[in-house]
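User: Can you recover a sequence for this backbone? Please restate the input before giving your answer.

Assistant: Of course. Working from this structure:
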């Protein structure tokens, strides 16, 4: 037969085990929660880069299909599907090695989470004019 003191010691040990188990579970849940937030932020940044690349590609295709390419710079402010507003700058200019080629530079920039982000692309196109 166990004494009262032995039962109290076992009950105290059981309580300590429960507290340690709860602490481990809490730490695990907090670590998983922090990772979920980080993954969600990474997804948003990646999504905005994808939108920016698509907007740049769209503007490049428009410029190449427009016909005679006049030199100049144009800026517009398209909104992406995420609600983010981008600054898109298109520059068309002559190249030194050909009279019929034009260089098309497209740059998109935006601010996200306090950081300036941008993508830039260049291509060459024949000008029929």
């Amino acid at each position: 037969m166990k004494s009262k003191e032995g039962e109290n010691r076992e009950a105290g040990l059981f309580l300590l085990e429960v507290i340690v188990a709860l602490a481990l579970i809490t730490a695990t849940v907090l670590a998983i929660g922090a990772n979920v937030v980080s993954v969600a932020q990474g997804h948003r940044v990646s999504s905005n880069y994808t939108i920016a690349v698509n907007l740049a590609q769209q503007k490049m295709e428009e410029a190449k299909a427009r016909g005679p390419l006049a030199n100049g710079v144009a800026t517009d402010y398209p909104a992406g599907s995420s609600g983010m507003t981008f600054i898109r700058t298109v520059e068309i200019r002559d190249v030194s090695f050909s009279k019929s080629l034009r260089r098309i530079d497209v740059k998109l920039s935006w601010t996200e989470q306090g950081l300036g982000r941008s993508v830039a692309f260049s291509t060459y196109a024949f000008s029929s004019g």
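That completes the design. The two ends are 106 Å apart (CA to CA).
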